[in-house]
Amino acid sequence: VGFGQGIDDDQTISHNLNEAFQKSNIGFLNLCNPSWDTVLLRGRLYRHGAELGPWDLILWMYYINDAKYSIKYFPINSLHLNKKKPTGKYRILDLIVFKWPHAVKKRVKKYTLSKKVKQDPKRSSWDNYYKWCLSSYEPGTATRKNEEAFIRDIVLWAQNNNSKIVFAIFPAENQLTDQNRKPQEFIKSLGNKFDFPVIDLLPYLIDANKKGKVYLPGDHQHLNEYGSQIVSNIIKEWLINQTNLTNVTNKTSF
Fold first, then answer.
1. Which residues face 170 on adjacent strands?
2. How far apart are CA 71 and CA 73, in angstroms?
3. pLDDT above 90: percentage of residues in the chain
């Protein structure tokens, strides 16, 4: 969604924000990828964030399906949380316990399920997929627990690298009518817990959708040009209202 799937480069959120702030010293880089989730994005941040930065602000574009694959718990997380330096033992656990089995299992699972995609109830229709995504945020589920762990690590990385971070939560089209707020309330609760601000786009897109469609034709999650412009304006106003962010001089990232 943050990447700009289905729209031209000059219609993306990052382009709109660069246009809006072209006379200032604020610039934006779009580092979003299609089909990525919190686990992959967290890995990119830890592996490449420092070399791509420094960042004054990270705008984390969060969509409601980002938690669906948060099924693996990272054993080094508790050490990061307590700001303890990982020992050699835990670095080995990081490599052996988490990365390799996960990679092998992912390949095997992908091959095994490739013939069953059409029968998979989660993928048989958009409504089933939507319900599957929402189920990731049910209390007590592994996805919810692990999603919190991954997001905690993202916030810790930002803190340790002197970067501010804000989460912008994108709704699915269904939420504009059923107003299900499970993902939004989850991220907001983490914002209160880990001390980061949240931009909830749901109420804004509900109002905007009354004036014109904000999603691509036949698409329930990716914004069209109008929707992208609406979100850009919301984020722009949020940035302007943050007086401590108006004198940004380094790079600012999506």
1. 63
2. 7
3. 50
Q: How does DSSP classify residue 50?
A: H
Query: What stretch of H or E contains 60?
Result: strand 55-63
Q: Output DSSP code: residue 215.
A: B
What would the two tokens of residue 111 be? 């091959």
Q: How many other CB atoms are found less than 10 A from the CB of residue 219?
A: 14
- Cis, bond preceding 101 (omega within 30 deg of 0): no
pLDDT by residue (tens digit) across 6-46?
999 999 999 999 999 988 888 899 988 888 888 888 888 88
Which of helix, strand or coil describes residue 223?
A: strand
H helices present in 70-181, as ranges: 77-81, 88-93, 100-113, 126-135, 142-160, 175-178
Q: For residue 203, count other CB atoms closer than 10 A to its CB.
A: 14
Kindly report the backbone phi and psi dihedral angles of residue 59, in degrees, each rounded to the nearest multiple of 5, phi listed first.
Answer: -95, 105
pLDDT band at 158 (very low <50, low <70, confident <90, very high): very high
| 0.85 surpassed by pTM | no
CB atoms within 10 A of CB 96: 11
